[in-house]
Design goal:
This protein is mainly alpha-helical. 66% of the residues lie in helices and 5% in strands. Helix 4 crosses helix 5 and helix 7 (143-170) packs across helix 8. Residues 429-438 have low confidence and may be disordered. This is Protein translocase subunit SecY.
Length: 438
């Protein structure tokens, strides 16, 4: 405890870091305030309490802004959708591949295209959102209400983008990721209070057991996020003037979960398709009715089997496009490095690819298990809001953002020659923003 208090003092003793923390809190407060500002023309007292089904998952990520029919109803999600589209374009379209290789200037252009693409995406999604609002809550339904709401929701999303960029520039952590995490965390107090109330005094022991299980699940996600397989690299001896430099041995850290949260996001988006398609023919086919029921219930074994399989496939896919063994091997060869016992060039590329394939399998299986764990928790009697924190997108995002933020704070402390936040002096977190690649 004394070490923790001393670390907090050190953090606020650094003027730049202190200013960034206060800036971050200020921008987060603005975002949370906007989440409760209801769209003009909507009677907040007639809105449905909470969202169900697939909209419940979205509402959790948005911190209740979706069910509140607020001006930030879609939050930063359209921007994330645009980011995913641009990532796929950098794989398939040579022009975007060229931009990605141009360094900082190329990244700025890609970010600009992402912002532009966000506008039509949020306009299209706002139409669907307006359709989900309870008809009794709309005071004067019609074209004017629809058009004005589309404009306001689009402006709200663009403002959330601006807040995210301000947090990144003048705050601490990645702004887009921080906004998503705050939305998720804002639901946690209500979920845990609701779970405690549901269990009551008679179920106090069960509630404590649930908290213990949640603790170990969080620890497992942290391990999965940080786990790496180190490939040893040897650098040949070099001659510097009249002195001979000894060879150095380093490591290439290959992450067990190099794909981050992206496989879950892709798989979750595809899991909406069967239920939507089945709803079109639900009156004409018994099979469609069965599929609609099974894939609308995320606790069914059919849903979770398909969901887990998709996560496995997308983990391998996203890892393949995120990590390029050929480029790693070429960089090693140019810098005079080699893997002991492996020839430079093609053999090194094949070796790295083999290692990556082997470590991706346990990482993908663990990610799939974490993704379906909320459904398992629900089957064991955990309430629906609280079960969402036992895994899935929510938990992985929270862990990743917290590790990223701790990493930045750690860097500030070490630069000012203060003791780190951990005894080891290292906090290994995610190195890529969620919005662009997790």
């Amino acid at each position: 405890m004394k070490k923790f208090i001393e670390t907090i003092k050190n953090i606020f003793a650094i003027e730049d870091l202190r200013t960034r923390i206060f800036n971050t809190l200020f921008f987060i407060a603005i975002y949370r305030l906007g989440s409760f500002v209801v769209l003009p023309g909507v009677d907040a007292t007639r809105l449905k309490q909470g969202a169900a089904g697939i909209f419940g998952i979205l509402d959790t990520l948005l911190g209740g802004a979706f069910s509140n029919a607020s001006i930030f109803a879609l939050g930063i999600m359209p921007y994330i959708s645009a980011s995913i589209v641009l990532q796929l374009l950098t794989i398939a379209v040579p022009y975007f591949q060229k931009l990605q290789k141009e360094g900082e200037s190329g990244r700025k252009k890609i970010n600009q295209y992402t912002r532009i693409l966000t506008i039509p995406i949020v306009l299209a999604q706002s139409v669907g959102f307006i359709a989900t609002i309870n008809a009794d809550a709309i005071i004067n339904p019609g074209v004017l209400f629809t058009v004005s709401s589309m404009i306001i929701i689009t402006a709200g999303t663009l403002f959330c983008m601006w807040l995210g960029e301000k947090i990144t520039d003048k705050g601490i952590g990645n702004g887009i990721s921080m906004i998503i995490m705050i939305g998720i965390v804002s639901r946690f107090p209500g979920a845990i209070i609701g779970e405690a109330a549901a269990k009551g005094l008679n179920g106090a022991l069960i509630f404590l057991l649930e908290l213990v299980v949640l603790f170990f699940v969080v620890m497992a996600v942290i391990v999965l996020t940080q786990a790496v397989r180190q490939i040893p690299v040897q650098y040949a001896k070099q001659i510097g003037g009249t002195a001979q430099l000894n060879s150095q041995r380093q490591f290439i850290p290959m992450k067990v979960n190099a794909a981050g949260v992206m496989p879950i996001i892709f798989a979750q988006s595809l899991m909406f398709v069967p239920a939507i398609v089945a709803s079109v023919w639900q009156n004409d086919s018994d099979l469609a009715n069965t599929i609609g029921v099974k894939f609308s219930d995320y606790t069914s074994w059919e849903y979770n089997l398909v969901f887990g399989t998709l996560i496995l496939l997308f983990t391998y896919f996203y890892t393949a496009i995120s990590v390029n063994p050929n480029q790693i091997a070429d960089d090693l060869k140019r810098s005079g490095g080699f893997v002991p016992g492996v020839k430079p060039g093609a053999d090194t590329s094949e070796y790295i690819d083999e290692v990556l394939t082997r470590i991706t399998l346990p990482g993908a299986l663990a990610l799939a298990l974490i993704a379906i764990f909320p459904a398992i928790a629900l089957l064991f009697g955990v309430t629906r809001p609280f079960s969402a924190f036992y895994g899935g997108t929510s938990l992985i995002i929270m862990v990743g953002v917290v590790l990223d933020t701790l990493n930045q704070v750690q860097s500030y402390l070490l630069m000012r020659h203060y003791d780190g936040m951990m005894k080891s002096g290292k906090v290994r977190g995610r190195s890529t923003p969620i919005a662009m690649a997790s």
